[in-house]
Amino acid sequence: MSTLNYKHLRYFWMVGKTGSIAKAAAQLHLTPHSISGQLSEFAHTLDVELFRRVGRNLEMTDAGRRIMGYAEDIFSTGDELLELVRDKRLTTTMSFRVGCADSVSKLIACRLVEPALTMQEPVRLICREGRLDSLVADLAVHRLDLVIADRPIPGHFSVRAYNHLLGESPMTAFASVALAAELGPQFPACLHEAPMLLPGEDFAIRHRLLQWLEQHAVHPRVVGEFDDSAMMTAFGQSGAGVFFAPTAIASQVCNQYGVIALGRIDVVVEQVYAITTERRLSHPATVAISTNARDTLFA
């Protein structure tokens, strides 16, 4: 393969985004037969299987997902180029690409990153969300400038990156107004046999919470486990069960989701890290985030 056929790459990208050849054909104003043929030619040229058929649907292979990540970057960069041509003001805008691990509260991440948008130098913020290992891989090849995580980079990663502790916060238990009324005022005893939503295995805080419950002889009824903090909070807001979030954002959680803080757990502390390829923080946006975390959010 001497050169990459970007037309074929765009066809593949569109099929991956829409989930079907028919939908991609409609978007591109082509026939499904044409898309199918050129997709096969693209896979043959790359010598990889891009999709596998599962019933009547197409499912992307592991190789296809990796190629899709590059395609996203290529066409996102192309869109930025077009905007740059159309708007001369964008020539002075600095791109800042942030990855946020699923296990980090979205309210925490938002408040951390906000200062990047209020700097004197204009910033175009590009946010990605996913599992920590995937985000660190993108950081290693400079597709991200910063990863926000609830733990340091795992030791088994052969990636030259550095951990910067942004801050730490104890945890608070929350429940909907109706559920809180059923549980009673005694904390943490009120959690015994209460419906509870727990963070998944990817959360660094999970095992500390379980140890704390065991130490207090509290045995809740676990009704859900979540790999995404926003999903867990949404279920907690609906009254499905008690959930946990950092005390640093307790008032915001109560106001935004209409829930009640049941009690604070000072001995269970969640840490938040900035993972970068810099030993010392130098990117202006990263420095602004670190300063905000130290002086405001986790003060």
- The strand line-up of the biggest sheet is 4-3-5-10-6-9
Q: What is the makeup of the main sheet?
A: 6 strands, mixed
Shape: globular
Write the H/E string, N to C: HHHEEHEHEHEEHEHEHEHEH
How many distinct beta strands? 10
Low-confidence stretches: none
Measured between the Cα atoms of the first and last residue, the distance is 55 Å
C-alpha Rg (nearest Å): 23 Å
Helix content: 40-55%
Q: What is the mean pLDDT?
A: 89
Q: Helix/strand-derived class?
A: alpha/beta
Estimated share of beta-strand residues = 25-35%
Q: How many helix segments? A: 11
Please tell me about this protein's structure:
- This protein is an alpha/beta fold.
- The protein contains eleven helices and ten strands.
- α5 (106-113) crosses α11 (284-297).
- The protein is globular, with a radius of gyration of 23 Å.
